[in-house]
Amino acid sequence: MQITLFKLAPTRSLRCRWALLEAGLNFESRGNVREIFETDELREVHPLRKLPAAVIDGKPLFESAAICTAIADLVPERNLIGQPGTWSRALHDQWTSFVLTELESWLWCTDLNTDEQGFLMPRDEQVKEIVPQNRKLAERSAAVLNAHLQKTDYLIENRFTVTDIIVGYTISWLQEVGWIVEFSHLIDYLDRLHGREYCTLTPRA
Length: 205
What we know:
Helix content: 40-55%
Order of helices and strands: EHEHEEHHHHH
Strand content: 5-15%
Number of helices: 7
Shape: globular
Protein backbone atom coordinates (compact mmCIF):
# COMPACT_ATOMS: atom_id res chain seq x y z
CA MET A 1 0.00 0.00 0.00
CA GLN A 2 1.29 3.44 -0.93
CA ILE A 3 0.22 6.42 1.17
CA THR A 4 1.26 10.04 0.69
CA LEU A 5 0.27 12.63 3.29
CA PHE A 6 0.32 16.33 2.42
CA LYS A 7 0.97 18.09 5.70
CA LEU A 8 2.09 21.17 7.58
CA ALA A 9 2.87 20.94 11.29
CA PRO A 10 0.31 23.43 12.70
CA THR A 11 -2.58 22.12 10.59
CA ARG A 12 -5.10 19.33 11.09
CA SER A 13 -2.64 17.08 9.27
CA LEU A 14 -1.35 16.31 12.78
CA ARG A 15 -4.45 14.14 13.16
CA CYS A 16 -3.61 12.15 10.06
CA ARG A 17 0.04 11.66 10.95
CA TRP A 18 -0.95 10.40 14.41
CA ALA A 19 -3.51 8.02 12.91
CA LEU A 20 -0.92 6.63 10.48
CA LEU A 21 1.56 6.07 13.30
CA GLU A 22 -1.05 4.32 15.47
CA ALA A 23 -2.02 2.20 12.48
CA GLY A 24 1.59 1.18 11.90
CA LEU A 25 1.41 2.13 8.22
CA ASN A 26 4.34 3.39 6.17
CA PHE A 27 3.74 6.69 4.43
CA GLU A 28 5.50 9.43 2.53
CA SER A 29 5.19 13.06 3.59
CA ARG A 30 4.82 16.06 1.33
CA GLY A 31 5.04 19.64 2.47
CA ASN A 32 5.84 20.97 5.94
CA VAL A 33 6.59 24.32 4.28
CA ARG A 34 3.99 26.96 3.44
CA GLU A 35 4.89 26.82 -0.24
CA ILE A 36 3.00 23.52 -0.42
CA PHE A 37 -0.25 25.50 -0.63
CA GLU A 38 0.78 26.94 -4.01
CA THR A 39 1.67 23.66 -5.69
CA ASP A 40 -0.23 22.02 -8.52
CA GLU A 41 0.49 18.69 -6.83
CA LEU A 42 -1.70 19.64 -3.86
CA ARG A 43 -4.41 21.10 -6.12
CA GLU A 44 -4.72 17.71 -7.81
CA VAL A 45 -5.62 16.18 -4.44
CA HIS A 46 -7.55 19.02 -2.79
CA PRO A 47 -9.44 21.46 -5.04
CA LEU A 48 -9.00 24.28 -2.51
CA ARG A 49 -5.31 23.45 -1.93
CA LYS A 50 -5.86 22.98 1.79
CA LEU A 51 -4.23 20.59 4.25
CA PRO A 52 -4.36 17.81 5.09
CA ALA A 53 -4.79 15.80 1.95
CA ALA A 54 -3.73 12.27 1.15
CA VAL A 55 -3.30 9.85 -1.68
CA ILE A 56 -3.98 6.24 -0.72
CA ASP A 57 -3.05 3.69 -3.39
CA GLY A 58 -3.46 6.33 -6.06
CA LYS A 59 -6.81 7.62 -4.79
CA PRO A 60 -7.03 11.22 -3.44
CA LEU A 61 -8.78 12.01 -0.19
CA PHE A 62 -9.12 15.22 1.81
CA GLU A 63 -10.62 16.37 5.15
CA SER A 64 -8.78 15.14 8.23
CA ALA A 65 -11.68 13.19 9.75
CA ALA A 66 -12.25 11.31 6.49
CA ILE A 67 -8.56 10.52 6.16
CA CYS A 68 -8.26 9.32 9.76
CA THR A 69 -11.36 7.16 9.42
CA ALA A 70 -10.07 5.62 6.19
CA ILE A 71 -6.70 4.90 7.82
CA ALA A 72 -8.36 3.15 10.74
CA ASP A 73 -10.44 1.03 8.36
CA LEU A 74 -7.27 -0.10 6.57
CA VAL A 75 -6.05 -1.92 9.69
CA PRO A 76 -9.08 -3.56 11.39
CA GLU A 77 -6.70 -5.71 13.42
CA ARG A 78 -5.58 -2.57 15.29
CA ASN A 79 -9.15 -2.01 16.53
CA LEU A 80 -8.88 1.75 16.07
CA ILE A 81 -12.52 2.16 15.01
CA GLY A 82 -15.81 0.28 15.18
CA GLN A 83 -16.75 -1.69 12.11
CA PRO A 84 -19.32 -0.18 9.71
CA GLY A 85 -22.84 -0.92 10.86
CA THR A 86 -21.94 -1.22 14.55
CA TRP A 87 -23.10 1.09 17.32
CA SER A 88 -19.47 1.98 18.01
CA ARG A 89 -19.17 3.25 14.45
CA ALA A 90 -22.32 5.32 14.88
CA LEU A 91 -20.82 6.87 18.01
CA HIS A 92 -17.63 7.63 16.08
CA ASP A 93 -19.71 9.49 13.50
CA GLN A 94 -21.60 11.28 16.25
CA TRP A 95 -18.60 12.60 18.17
CA THR A 96 -16.64 13.43 15.04
CA SER A 97 -19.53 15.42 13.58
CA PHE A 98 -20.20 17.09 16.91
CA VAL A 99 -16.67 18.30 17.50
CA LEU A 100 -16.19 19.54 13.94
CA THR A 101 -19.48 21.43 13.70
CA GLU A 102 -20.26 22.45 17.27
CA LEU A 103 -16.78 23.18 18.62
CA GLU A 104 -14.04 23.40 16.02
CA SER A 105 -16.02 25.74 13.78
CA TRP A 106 -15.90 28.46 16.46
CA LEU A 107 -12.17 27.97 17.01
CA TRP A 108 -11.52 28.20 13.29
CA CYS A 109 -13.62 31.34 12.98
CA THR A 110 -11.63 32.87 15.82
CA ASP A 111 -8.32 32.01 14.15
CA LEU A 112 -9.50 33.53 10.88
CA ASN A 113 -10.42 36.78 12.58
CA THR A 114 -7.39 37.16 14.84
CA ASP A 115 -4.56 36.15 12.49
CA GLU A 116 -2.12 39.03 12.88
CA GLN A 117 -0.07 37.94 9.87
CA GLY A 118 -3.10 37.93 7.60
CA PHE A 119 -2.17 34.50 6.23
CA LEU A 120 -5.57 32.94 6.90
CA MET A 121 -7.59 36.06 6.11
CA PRO A 122 -6.49 39.61 5.18
CA ARG A 123 -6.39 41.78 8.27
CA ASP A 124 -8.75 44.35 6.75
CA GLU A 125 -11.41 41.65 6.32
CA GLN A 126 -11.22 40.33 9.87
CA VAL A 127 -14.05 40.86 12.36
CA LYS A 128 -12.47 40.64 15.80
CA GLU A 129 -15.75 41.54 17.50
CA ILE A 130 -17.03 38.04 16.78
CA VAL A 131 -14.53 36.36 19.11
CA PRO A 132 -16.55 36.65 22.38
CA GLN A 133 -19.54 35.05 20.67
CA ASN A 134 -17.32 32.28 19.31
CA ARG A 135 -15.97 31.61 22.78
CA LYS A 136 -19.45 31.39 24.26
CA LEU A 137 -20.55 28.86 21.66
CA ALA A 138 -17.32 26.86 21.90
CA GLU A 139 -17.54 26.63 25.67
CA ARG A 140 -21.15 25.44 25.48
CA SER A 141 -20.04 22.51 23.32
CA ALA A 142 -16.91 21.90 25.39
CA ALA A 143 -19.15 21.47 28.43
CA VAL A 144 -20.89 18.57 26.67
CA LEU A 145 -17.60 16.77 26.08
CA ASN A 146 -16.41 17.57 29.58
CA ALA A 147 -19.53 15.97 31.08
CA HIS A 148 -19.13 12.86 28.92
CA LEU A 149 -15.47 12.47 29.84
CA GLN A 150 -16.31 12.69 33.52
CA LYS A 151 -17.71 9.18 33.13
CA THR A 152 -15.11 7.57 30.86
CA ASP A 153 -11.43 7.86 29.97
CA TYR A 154 -12.06 7.80 26.22
CA LEU A 155 -14.99 8.67 24.01
CA ILE A 156 -16.05 5.22 22.81
CA GLU A 157 -16.11 1.93 24.73
CA ASN A 158 -13.71 3.46 27.26
CA ARG A 159 -10.77 2.63 24.99
CA PHE A 160 -8.54 4.68 22.69
CA THR A 161 -9.78 4.97 19.12
CA VAL A 162 -9.25 7.20 16.11
CA THR A 163 -12.19 9.24 17.41
CA ASP A 164 -9.93 10.41 20.23
CA ILE A 165 -7.34 11.53 17.67
CA ILE A 166 -9.90 13.66 15.86
CA VAL A 167 -11.48 15.10 19.01
CA GLY A 168 -8.21 15.39 20.92
CA TYR A 169 -6.77 17.74 18.29
CA THR A 170 -9.71 20.10 18.78
CA ILE A 171 -9.46 19.96 22.57
CA SER A 172 -5.76 20.77 22.29
CA TRP A 173 -6.72 23.77 20.14
CA LEU A 174 -9.22 24.80 22.80
CA GLN A 175 -6.40 24.69 25.34
CA GLU A 176 -4.13 26.70 23.05
CA VAL A 177 -6.56 29.63 22.98
CA GLY A 178 -7.11 29.43 26.75
CA TRP A 179 -10.75 28.34 26.70
CA ILE A 180 -10.31 25.10 28.63
CA VAL A 181 -9.61 26.30 32.17
CA GLU A 182 -13.07 25.47 33.51
CA PHE A 183 -13.13 21.96 32.05
CA SER A 184 -11.01 19.73 34.27
CA HIS A 185 -12.10 16.49 32.61
CA LEU A 186 -10.97 17.77 29.21
CA ILE A 187 -7.60 18.68 30.72
CA ASP A 188 -7.27 15.17 32.17
CA TYR A 189 -8.30 13.72 28.81
CA LEU A 190 -5.53 15.64 27.05
CA ASP A 191 -3.03 14.42 29.60
CA ARG A 192 -4.02 10.82 28.80
CA LEU A 193 -3.63 11.44 25.08
CA HIS A 194 -0.23 13.08 25.56
CA GLY A 195 0.89 9.89 27.27
CA ARG A 196 0.49 7.85 24.09
CA GLU A 197 3.70 7.01 22.23
CA TYR A 198 2.64 8.47 18.89
CA CYS A 199 0.68 11.50 20.06
CA THR A 200 1.37 14.48 17.80
CA LEU A 201 -0.26 17.06 20.09
CA THR A 202 1.92 19.53 21.99
CA PRO A 203 1.65 19.05 25.79
CA ARG A 204 0.85 22.12 27.88
CA ALA A 205 3.76 23.87 29.55
